[in-house]
Amino acid sequence: MFRFQHPDMIYLFAAAPLLMVLFWLFVRWKKKSLLSFGKIEIIQQLFPDVSNTRPTVKFWIRWVAFVMLIIGLCGPLIGSKLEEVKRKGSDIIICLDVSNSMLAEDLLPNRLERAKQAISRLIDKLEGDRIGLVVFAGDAYTQLPITTDYAAAKLFLTQISTDIVPKQGTAIGAAIDLATTSFTDTIKKNSAIVIITDGENHEDDAIESAKSATEQGVKVYTIGMGSEQGTPIPIYNNGAKVGYRQDHSGQTIMTKMNSVMLEDIAEGGKGKFIHATNSDDGLSIILKELNALDKKEFKAKMYTSFENQYQIFIAIALILLLIDFIIGENKSKVVAKWNLFGENNKQKL
User: Fold this and answer.
1) Where are the domains of the chain?
2) Of the candidates 20, 34, 283, 323, which lies 20 to 30 Å from 63 by C-alpha distance?
């Protein structure tokens, strides 16, 4: 098993493509500046010791060293000891709405991202429980089968977006049915389903699905995302907001949280409804409810020991930086005999 000790450092990888773009712009600027003085072939003859290829080679050496350094800072961990351990907890499946209405921004930064943040914090506070993820819009799909691997759960959580489900809509009932059948034990009295949605159900009878789950011993909780006043659904293009979704008549679509529906689903599922706000996402209430569930003992295979491999990547980065230091900007008379960079051939051409 592989995971990072400091996953927050992963965001540093965003600088890698930025460096590539900046270098490309620099090369273009340099070439344009040289052309302003005359033909490049004549200028090269005036500066015979200046290498054309070494700056590019040195850049890529530094770039790879930078990437290796980031990996090292993330603290890559590799599981070294797999053991079967006994754990005591409950089975929890979270059903997350990924319909377009979840992009509404009455919760910051939007309903979906706010829900993902709440789920991530919930995972951090679980102790011994098994967790699974179901995503739904017009239909429901298993994103992560029930597991004790919290790191995997958080990784799968980051991949969730409104594009992950091909059919739009809000099939809460289908999500409840799929979650109910996803529990591995035949006796489900230690199980719970947490539905996170704005409650705009248009596809099926979610209340009946909740009652059916309860008959099998599963409690159903609902967390409502959004406001009851209504807000438009933004449209983004390449990360920029370009407008709001409209109906066939050209009117802006307003999405409202259906608290009545969510309360009825929770009542049918013998659970509880929580209305999430910008100041309180209902996490503490849900945790209290989940901790009150009967805990069962089960066996699970887990890595109980991890070895940090950051030294390998830091060492590679240092070696590459040493190579970069050794390679000069200008041509070397000794190295030129070996023609490592193909410079002699370019001069003949």
Assistant:
1) 2-75+309-348, 84-302
2) 34
Q: What is the pTM of this model?
A: 0.68
Is residue 188 within 8 Å of 217, Cβ to Cβ? yes
pLDDT for 260 equals 93
The answer to whether the CB of 222 falls within 8 A of the CB of 190 is no
- Count of beta carbons in the 10 Å neighbourhood of residue 103: 21
Instruction: Output the average pLDDT for the chain.
Output: 85
Contact (CB, 8 A) for 168 and 218: no
| Cα angle value 201/178/213 (rounded, 5°) | 80
**DSSP state for residue 249 in the 8-state scheme:** T
Spatial strand order in the sheet of 91-97: 140-147, 130-136, 91-97, 191-197, 218-224, 273-275
Q: How far apart are CA 272 and CA 266, in angstroms?
A: 5
What whole-number distance in Å separates Cα of residue 181 and Cα of residue 310?
41
Q: What is the DSSP string of 186-246?
A: S--TTEEEEEEE-----SS-HHHHHHHHHHTTEEEEEEE-S-SS-EE-EEEETTEEEEE-B
Q: In the chain, what are the helix, strand and coil shares in percent, each to the nearest 5?
A: 45, 25, 30
Contacts of 279 (CB under 8 A, 6+ apart): none
Q: Are 331 and 86 in contact (CB under 8 A)?
A: no
CA dihedral 265, 268, 270, 276 (to 10 degrees): 10
Alpha helix (H) residue ranges in 36-95: 40-46, 54-74
Q: DSSP code of 306? A: E
* pLDDT tens, residue by residue, 159-183: 999 999 988 888 999 999 999 999 9
> Residue 242 is inside which H or E element, if any?
strand 240-244
Per-residue pLDDT of 219-275, as tens digits, reads: 999 999 999 888 999 998 887 889 999 988 889 999 999 999 999 999 999 999 999
DSSP 3-state of 100: helix
Residue length of the chain: 349
- Euclidean distance between CA atoms 209 and 54, whole angstroms: 66
CB 220 within 8 A of CB 173: no
Q: How far is 142 from 301, CA to CA, in rounded Å?
A: 22
Cβ 62 vs Cβ 320: under 8 Å: yes
